[in-house]
């Protein structure tokens, strides 16, 4: 059985939405945002993450 690393993930998570029930559960976080055609907050810069715009568009703008 694979060990869950939620607490370890939480310690390094850069998402500022602290109330999120998926924080530290990276598999759920990725699935949630993928279903919305988005990326998790940790893909963005500190400034970009704070906009809560997790769209592919925002990611491309930030990285072009
Ligand atoms: S990136 Fe989204 S799903 Fe992941 S912890 Fe932040 S708000 Fe929650």
Write the layout of secondary structure elements.
Layout: H1 6-12, H2 26-35, H3 46-50, H4 56-62
The site of iron/sulfur cluster (SF4) has 10 residues, from helix 2.
Task: Give short descriptive properties of this protein.
single chain, 64 residues, mainly alpha, 4 helices, globular, binds iron/sulfur cluster
Task: Provide a brief overview of the structure.
This protein is mostly helical.
Strand content: under 5%
The chain-level structural class is mainly alpha
> What compounds sit in this structure?
iron/sulfur cluster
| First and last CA, distance | 40 Å
What does this structure look like?
The protein is mainly α and 64 residues long. The chain has a domain at 22-64. Helix content is 45%, strand content 0%. It contains four helices and no strands. The chain has helices at residues 6-12, 26-35, 46-50, 56-62. It is globular. The model has no long low-confidence stretch (mean pLDDT 96). The structure holds iron/sulfur cluster. The site of iron/sulfur cluster (SF4) has 10 residues, from helix 2.
